[in-house]
Amino acid sequence: MIVAFSVTPLGVGEDVGEYVADAVRVVRESGLPNRTDAMFTSVEGEWDEVMDVVRRAVAAVEARAPRVSLVLKADIRPGVTDALTAKVETVERHLAG
Q1: pTM of the entire structure?
Q2: So which domain of life are we looking at (predicted)?
Q3: Nearest alpha-carbon partner for 6 in 76, 75, 57, 63
Q4: Rounded to the nearest 10 degrees, what angle do helices 47-62 and 17-30 cross at?
């Protein structure tokens, strides 16, 4: 499964980059395949391991912010691996053709 999620601290002002970095650090240290862009962090793995990473990422932000917003989208396809890369490669192939 792939989960794309965004963790936003609330009540800490406009500059939230350092808080978001705490969440991304948890994802990167998990060892699961992941990507971060301007809006979301995507992580790929089995349900329990991915949701544990999301939970810990939220907790990292929650430890420093009075309120946290979580947006989450999941692509649940049992038996599929490396979809994080394969999906992008498919689109790139179509763009090149």
Answers
A1: 0.91
A2: Bacteria
A3: 57
A4: 150
With residue 55 as reference, give the H or E element that holds it.
Answer: helix 47-62
Q: In what order do the strands lie in the sheet with 67-75?
A: 34-36, 41-44, 2-10, 67-75
Pull the structure tokens for residue 73: 């989208």
- pLDDT (tens digit, 9 = 90+) per residue, 28-50? 999 999 999 999 999 999 999 99
Number of other residues whose CB lies within 10 A of the CB of residue 45:
20
Lowest mean pLDDT among 51-55, 64-68, 88-92: 88-92
Angstrom distance (rounded) from CA 38 to CA 93: 23
